[in-house]
Write a sequence for this structure.
């Protein structure tokens, strides 16, 4: 039975390379492409039969790990395979913490990419896995909270990180200022902070504005 895969990357040539890998890893796959985070979020929300997302961390519109968090919030049961040039030592672990099921460097060879795609397609989504781990740290608890925000809440939080005022956020997201304030109230309550500055600091501490 065929599957549907979203390839989210801003480089057309790399999207082609991933599509080529898919022809071997999943010959019956239907491919959807997105060149920006906004386009990827739309495709994720509007494709009911989506089976896998491959995601570049440095998509236009994304900061740090926000792309993973946003797409995972849109469809928490769809596995996300990060394919990125990020070279910091913790990138793979951080990507998984925000909802990715795997991490692959862009300089991987074709057989490695094919194997990673097969593995991701066969894995139980992160939201359904039951794992026994050591007690989580405070940072891990907050990271889990950020990863559990709704798509709209994440968009509002990212706009706050960008320094936008409620009026600007309302205009950009097509909602009233009162609705923005309501989302900020919910975000601050979930993060257990008192104001938007503390909320932004919490998000920054978790890598949401890291330039990878």
């Amino acid at each position: 039975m065929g599957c549907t895969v979203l390839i989210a990357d801003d480089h057309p040539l790399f999207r082609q390379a991933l599509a080529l890998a898919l022809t071997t890893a999943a010959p019956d796959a239907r491919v959807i492409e997105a060149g920006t985070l906004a386009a990827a979020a739309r495709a994720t929300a509007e494709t009911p039969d989506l089976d896998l997302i491959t995601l570049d961390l440095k998509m236009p519109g994304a900061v740090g790990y926000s792309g993973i968090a946003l797409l995972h919030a849109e469809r928490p049961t769809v596995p996300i395979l990060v394919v990125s040039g990020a070279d910091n030592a913790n990138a793979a672990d951080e990507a998984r913490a925000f909802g990715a099921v795997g991490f692959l460097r862009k300089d991987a060879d074709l057989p490695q990419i094919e194997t990673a795609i097969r593995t991701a397609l066969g894995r139980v989504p992160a939201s359904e896995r039951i794992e026994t781990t050591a007690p989580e740290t405070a940072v891990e608890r907050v990271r889990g909270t950020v990863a559990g925000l709704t798509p709209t809440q994440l968009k509002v939080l990212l706009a706050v990180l960008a320094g936008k005022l409620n009026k600007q956020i309302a205009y950009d997201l097509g909602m009233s200022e009162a609705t923005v304030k309501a989302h900020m109230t919910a975000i601050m309550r979930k993060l257990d902070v008192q104001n938007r500055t503390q909320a932004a600091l919490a998000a920054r501490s978790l890598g949401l504005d890291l330039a990878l």
Remarks:
- The beta strands are 4-8, 30-34, 50-55, 80-84, 102-105.
- Confidence is low (pLDDT under 50) at residues 123-136.
- Residues 64 and 207 are 6 Å apart (CA to CA).
